[in-house]
Amino acid sequence: MPLPLILTGLTFGLAYLGIKGVDVTVDAIWDKLELNNRHHKKLESPNECSNIFQGRWVYDPNFPPLDYTKNCPFVPQQFECLKHGRPDNDYLKYKWIPNSCKLPRFHGINFLKKVRGKSVMIVGDSVLLGIANGLRCDFLVDMVVGDNKERVLKLDSIEKGTAKWDGYDVLVFNTWNQGLQTGKNQLWDVIEEGNVRHKNMDPLVACEKALNTWTKWVNSKVDSKKTQIFFQGISPDHFKSRNWANPNARNCARETRPAPGKRYPGGRHPAEAVLEKVLKQIQKPIQFMNVTAMSQLRKDGHTSIYGANGKHVDCTNWCLPGLPDVWNELLSARLLLGY
Ligand SMILES: *[C@@H]1O[C@H](CO)[C@@H](O)[C@H](O)[C@H]1NC(C)=O
């Protein structure tokens, strides 16, 4: 009897392992994968790979696009851009080539063999699940309902989450979409730190505090002999075309190609420095998946007006299939091959 593999919130390339609240057993997924996996070759043997996150995007007209949307009940449909009328599909044909090695294509069956009998939890946010109002870095810390029914985000408390994460073999934190969401998508009414309440707080500052609370939990509670932790970096948005020097664009709409070259003209993501500072505090071995720079180049990958809610130009979430599959390839290369 395989252990149930409970994943919340990650669309795992073709292995659509689960959406929030759905438990799937490995065997059930296995059947689905068999349907999708025929064109996948065997994994290449491991080779030298010093930094899989540094590299370039290369267009390959013959790159077989992943199509996991037909037989898989778990794909969140709101991000299936082709289904919602996206006319171009070159964005599916860019391969990520790390400078130092070749990346194996994500192989669902091998991935599942590796995780079989293990429990994996993906503490996911909206970008991977693909829900625009999903959780942000605020869900690392506790959210409670206060006396007046207001939603209180407690920056220094992490008990509710950790109870759920306890005992897993692999925990994947994929937490930073836009830091803490403010404005109409905001998930809380009040931020609390110690006994002090704040109505407003700079989202970068609040996010740093939440991450620090998480770091303390990792340092004091995680047993690294048992649990392997992956932490995925910031997923960038593309609302300002001046960042990629296209005078004809305003945002990601109608972008059909990645920004050329290896370096994003808009420079480093503003939250990068915060994350660097936080990561330095972690005393346990964690696998940091630095997908930010590679994703910054992919101004062409967003749902734009081809999401389920086509009225708005969405330059935060990504088309599926699409860039998140590449992140998953990187994640599984780490997990399977130790890249
Ligand atoms: C991620 O990689 C980029 C570019 O390689 C680097 O500038 C950035 O500092 C890295 N992020 C973190 C949090 O280390």
UniProtKB/TrEMBL annotation:
Residue ranges annotated for the Trichome birefringence-like N-terminal domain, each copy included: 49-102
Record InterPro entries: TBL, TBL_C, TBL_N
Bilayer disposition of the protein: Single-pass membrane protein
GO molecular function terms listed in the Swiss-Prot or TrEMBL record: O-acetyltransferase activity
Subcellular location: Membrane
Pfam families: PC-Esterase (PF13839), PMR5N (PF14416)
Cellular compartments per GO CC: Golgi apparatus; membrane
Residue intervals of the Trichome birefringence-like C-terminal domain: 139-333
UniProt keyword list: Membrane, Signal, Signal-anchor, Transmembrane, Transmembrane helix
Signal sequence, renumbered to the chain: 1-21
Transmembrane stretches, start-end: none
Family from the record: Belongs to the PC-esterase family. TBL subfamily.
The name this protein goes by in its record: Uncharacterized protein
Organism the protein comes from: Corchorus olitorius
